[in-house]
Amino acid sequence: DLYLRASADTLWFAETSGAIERSGRAQPPSLAIGADGDAFARALAARLSAFARSHRLLALMRALETAAPASLQASVAIDQHGRRPEAQPCGPASRQPPAGSKPLAQVAAENGGVAKLRHCDVVYVTVRNEGNSAVDMTPLYFDRDFGISYLESGELEGIRIPAGGEHTYIAPIS
């Protein structure tokens, strides 16, 4: 669900109906409400369209989830060691989860059941194909602004995972 919250100059797209943060990384996606009503209407339509598109794709993915081969096994690890103040750029991410990375379930448990990611965290999704034939993958990333992008920063590697093979997809959080 999406809750629209407005002030005199900003419209926020919140996930809850409660209080919202109005600055920093905890602030939900927003649009500036300007004097040009037509420009605001176009920007609002584009943002709501992106929201609808991401939710339709998620619904389709959930429906197809039961059709995924049982031979595919996935694990998620999160590296929180590179955290820096938001004004500083993040360092490069390694290709594999470094020692000390935590499983997704542990990160979620430490934060009341929700995996809260911060600036310079790196998410590693490792998919193993334990079957006898190759499997084609389309790893997608849904960002907080309802954008959909390819998980590997535009690189077209790891789409096909051979029988007995695995690939780790990387999602640096900036």
Describe the structure.
By secondary structure, the chain is of the alpha+beta class. Helix content is 20%, strand content 27%. The chain has helices spanning 37-64, 104-110; strands spanning 3-6, 10-14, 30-32, 72-79, 102-103, 122-129, 135-136, 140-142, 148-150, 160-161, 166-172. It has a four-stranded antiparallel beta sheet with strand order 5-4-6-11. It has a three-stranded antiparallel beta sheet with strand order 1-2-3, covered by helices on one side. It has a two-stranded antiparallel sheet with strand order 7-10. Strand 8 (140-142) and strand 9 form a beta hairpin. The chain starts with a strand and ends with a strand.
Tally of DSSP β-strands = 11
Strand composition percent: 25-35%
Strand order of the largest sheet: 5-4-6-11
Structural class: alpha+beta
Termini Cα gap: 25 Å
Uncertain stretches: none
> What proportion of the residues is helical, as a percent range?
10-25%
Mean pLDDT: 81
Gyration radius over CA: 19 Å
Number of helices: 2
H-E order = EEEHEEHEEEEEE
Largest sheet: 4 strands, antiparallel
Note the overall shape: globular
